[in-house]
Amino acid sequence: MAHENLKQYLIGKPGKDFVTNLTSAVYDFTSKIRRAYGSYDFIHYRIFEEVTVREYTGQTTRWGEEKPEHFRFDCVLYVEPHQAALNKRQIYSVGVELKNSKGDLMGDKKIEHYLGYTDFFFIGVPSNLIDDAMERSESDERIGVVDVETGKLVKMPERIFPTAERQKNLLEQIMFSRMFDEDFRNVVSVKVEDVEVIPAPLKDTSCITISDTIGDNNNKEAEIIGRTGSAVGSMENRERTEGENRQEQGDRESSIEVAREAARLREQARREKHDAKVAALKEEVAAMNDKVPAVVASILDGLSLNDQRIYHAIRRNDGIQAQYIAEILPYQEGVERPSIATVKRSISSLTKAGLIEREGSKKAGQYIIKKVDCAPDSCLVCAKSPLCKQFRHVSEFMHESE
């Protein structure tokens, strides 16, 4: 079953069952409202797919910027359990990682990286993979399991209260995707006829005895004594750790500055190389433009340097096919020969300027120089083509005379 098919279950009745049962387990007052008013239509949730979170590893790019490692939730749900949830800060988030095969489920080593960004985290699987999902999640009580085909909440995970930084990270990504991309689905509302409430799974307490309880209390007392005795040592360790962190931060900032300076020098070298190439090309085309009529030189002056080089290559070999033009261009140190696509763009510009024309068939034809004549009846200077920088139409003279 493909991921897209699994996502569809989250917007239908299975998804509504899952969210309603989870909300009932998180906030028991929703069950009281349900019994009082006979409806669950106060619950709403919104689904966002392919939400990326970032973990910073201290690595930097070649530009000296931080290079985080990316992890992507299949779906993130934001649940509004009732109308006043925002005022009471009771909106909660759910991360869902969908798995459609046992190999993908058991081999995914990234699942633990998703923990801590949402209030709850679930592995969502079809019914035939429930046992495998339970096995995959047994190592961490913060990982829950949901059957996406039925909406059944198979394993209730522990709630995680994300830090402000991680909440900001997640919300920034969602806001970015809403501004520049399309999210998965719109708001989904739950009605009473949509769901069948199933109690959340609880831990098995049938085997707990009085001796177990006494043992737990003794362990807690020993833990408290141990904490008190090591308070001074913990404070010293904390101060030492803070000093090491400040040193690491200083080293990191220093390495970033070095990388930025190296990037600046590379960019400066690239610009100098580019400026030298442009200067050489300008010198080349200026020498060749002196050998053509003034009207042609004026038209060429309005085109790019590459267009001018292509024109003079055709002029020197009047009657040449496009694929051979790049081979006959003069060699310039540091200047790469243009591709056939670049040559064709220049040919298009030269054709529109009236400087060249095609002779012969489309397959075997050649490009030749087109004669450009002056027409005093249309231009006050000497040029016929409006692309000439000196072109001034006769109508302008007539307007000035009036």
Tell me what you see in this structure.
The protein has a seven-stranded mixed β-sheet, with helices on both faces. It has 402 residues and is of the alpha+beta class. 46% of the residues lie in helices and 14% in strands. β5 (143-147) and β6 form a beta hairpin. It has helices at residues 3-11, 13-26, 29-37, 102-107, 130-137, 164-180, 210-229, 231-289, 294-301, 305-316, 340-352, 394-401, and strands at residues 44-55, 69-80, 92-98, 120-125, 143-147, 152-155, 187-189, 356-359, 366-369. The radius of gyration is 36 Å and the shape is elongated.
Give the structure's gist in a few sentences:
By secondary structure, the protein is of the alpha+beta class. 46% of the residues lie in helices and 14% in strands. The strands form two sheets. The protein has a seven-stranded mixed sheet with strand order 6-5-4-3-2-1-7, with helices on both faces.
Give the termini separation. Answer: 81 Å
What assembly state would you assign to the polypeptide chains in this entry?
A: single chain
Radius of gyration: 36 Å
Structural class: alpha+beta
Number of continuous helical runs = 12
How much helicity do the residues have? 40-55%
Q: Which shape, going by the Cα principal axes?
A: elongated
Uncertain stretches: 205-211, 376-387, 397-402
Assess the beta-strand content as a share of residues: 5-15%
Q: N-to-C SSE series?
A: HHHEEEHEHEEHEHHHHHEEH
Report the mean per-residue pLDDT as an integer. Answer: 75
The neighbouring-strand order within the major sheet is 6-5-4-3-2-1-7
Let me know the largest β-sheet.
7 strands, mixed
Number of strands: 9
